[in-house]
Amino acid sequence: MIGCHRRWYLMSKVKDELKKVHNEPSVHFLNPLDHEDIKVHPAISLDANEVLVVYGLDPDTHKVTRYLRNGPTLYIPQANEWLHEFHWHGTDPKNKTRMIEGSRVFTRLQVIPDQFYYNVDEVRTADDALMRIKLMIFYEVKDINHMLNTTQDPIADFINCVSADVVAFVSKLSYTEFIERSAELNDLSNYPLLLDRCKMIGYEVSKVVFRGYYASEQLQRMHDGAIEARVKLKLEFESEEQAESLIDMNIKNDQERAALEQRLELEDLNHRQSIERCEHEHNVALMKQQHVEAMCRRQKQQQARLVMKQLVDEQRTAFYDHLVTLGVDLTRYLLSQHPQPSQVIRVVGTGDSAATNLHVHHN
Questions:
Q1: What residues does the Band domain cover (predicted)?
Q2: Considering its fold, how many domains does the chain have in total?
């Protein structure tokens, strides 16, 4: 006698018939004459971020179909259905950065973003330095049907592609160049094979984190020595650079101070010249004004004399005209105004007698 309740179901196999599923609370009797087997199975509980890939066989056409069962739900398969079982690379329990083929077996597919650690071992640089590159890969499934049709193990695809991309990136650089450019491994553009493969299998890699690298102890000691020497040289260089910068700053300050003094002297000279020019222009303007005023006064005096002379001449002419009208002989009148001398003495010398002394007495 076998019974079941809501979270369990019965799978019975009737002789010469298909399996039957009883998902309602019931009690069944295992009759060896009618049944081959009756088993009790728990119902599959799905969370909101889980998906089941279910295959079903049509008993009439014998055609197999596939569909996705999304959570949250409580799934009980039908008699002609079975679940897809995934066999992927899984993380080694002893080493989280090592993946073991086929170690991860499951039927519930996670549809939320996930990540895993992985180390790319035995990567050689251009100068033949051997190292290990530590990465962390973040991924998310975008198309489950496309993933089922194109790959059996997407984790294996991620590992192979990221290893190829890292080898291609590191092999072009020397050990020193890789150390200087190692941060570029955080950029997704340096993983072209990984990105292309993700598009092909329905996944998306959102980020690849570079977690560091590991080289041999001997190489690491050599690198540490080189770093120490480089740091020492860098400190010396920075000290010299600071000293030179201080000298340059002093010279620059002296030049700026000299330029400022010259500018102040030039401004003072320009100010004095401006004052002198203003004084000169004022004096010239004042002298010009005085000269103009003097010329005006002389012109007015000259005009006054001309006017006075003209008036005197007019009075004299009027007086002479009046004399004429009175019958006065104007010529005799004018001669009387200027009397002739009573005696005229004329001395004439000829030849050498001109040098003779002459003495004249006049009573």
A1: 46-208
A2: 2
Domain-embedded: residue 244: no
d(CA 106, CA 111) in angstroms, rounded, equals: 13
Last residue of a domain, one of 66, 83, 100: 83
**φ/ψ (deg, to 5) at 159:** -60, -45
Query: Does residue 61 share a domain with residue 130?
Result: no
Domain annotation covers residue 71 = yes
Q: What phi and psi values does residue 227 have, to the nearest 5 degrees?
A: -65, -40
Do 57 and 117 fall into the same domain? no
Question: Within this chain, do residues 97 and 209 fall inside the same structural domain, yes or no?
Answer: yes
The residues pairing with 83 across neighbouring beta strands, listed in sequence order, are 54
Contact 104, 124 (CB under 8 A): no
* Cα–Cα distance, 9 to 42 (Å, whole number): 6
Say what the pTM is: 0.56
Which H/E stretch holds residue 105? strand 95-106
- Cβ of 227: how many Cβ atoms within 10 Å? 12
Domain span including residue 117? 86-215
Q: Cβ(152)–Cβ(87) under 8 Å?
A: yes
Q: Are 176 and 129 in contact (CB under 8 A)?
A: no
Of 164, 198, 215, which residue sits at a domain end?
A: 215
Q: What pLDDT digit, counting tens, does each position of 329-351 carry?
A: 878 888 877 766 666 666 666 55
Instruction: Compute the distance between CA of residue 299 and CA of residue 311 in angstroms, rounded to an integer.
Output: 18
Q: Are residues 99 and 18 in the same domain?
A: no
pLDDT (tens digit per residue) in 277-331: 999 999 999 999 999 999 999 999 999 999 999 999 999 888 888 888 888 887 8
β-sheet bridge partners, residue 193: none
